[in-house]
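Cross-check.
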Amino acid sequence: MKENLNFKKFIIDGLRKANEQDNSLGDRSQYIGASDIGQCPRKCYLGKINKQVLEERELLAFARGHASEEKFKKSFEAAKINFDSQLEIRSKKHNWIVIHPDFLLKMKNEDIAIECKDTKTIPEIPYESWVLQLQLQMGVLLENGYNIKRGMILVTGMLEEKLQAFECFFDPVLYELALKRAQKVWDALQSNIEPEAEKSLLCSYCHFQQDCPKMQIKTEMTLPNEFLDKVEKIKSFSATEKIIKSYKQEITDFLKSTDVKNARAGDYKVSLSWYQGREKIDTTKIPTEILKLATNKGDPYPVLKIS
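Predicted model, tokenized:
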């Protein structure tokens, strides 16, 4: 069995073409959307004035996002809930702000804005960028007469295979903060002056990072707030991994000493398997000159340490 690169290219090219032909959100360079304020202002500005060719990773992420929205849509339909999806609504006070809520549920006593997110892992609390995005949507909906009190951020975690629903109530203070972020990008578009960049967990995926002022810092820097939860989890997992390694060694030593391959612990089956060792080369038996010619250093690789 071998990889068929031509067929893979056929699929990726199809996703790229479908994305380019999708005009459901209109010309995004002519307005500020809710998702724009969750981004670095510089990235958002440059993305609006420059045509971008999406990479494979981004195309697949968009496809997963659309698939998630589709499953939620079927869920709402099955529950016979009245809703709109991707409704286009323009702000009455700032006509350059246009929102497209993923879903707007029309309940008996209220309307509920739904924002869908698809991530590898679900954070303990929603990212600030997600919250501000939802606050902007709720504020614009209120301007347009909708009975909005709260919204939901539905997050699908791919690695965890879990769904989380974060409830967010409308907050006028956060709405004003969201408006200020939107205003910053809009002013930049009107003046053609690049806004200041901001660090975020998406910096490593940015198309414009090569000449970004924030990425030129080579000394110690403070990571974006979104990484704090991840660093804390890595630290806790590292301690857990050491404990697990110790436990496994104890069980392995016991099974080896008793010459037992299979055992039970409550409802769990425990087995000890032996694999053939890797082939090794005895370098002491190879002439030094030949060994030098046959030896080369591997490519450098990164090692992350957290202390």
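The longest strand covers residues 148-157. The chain has a mean pLDDT of 85. Passed to J.P. for a second look.
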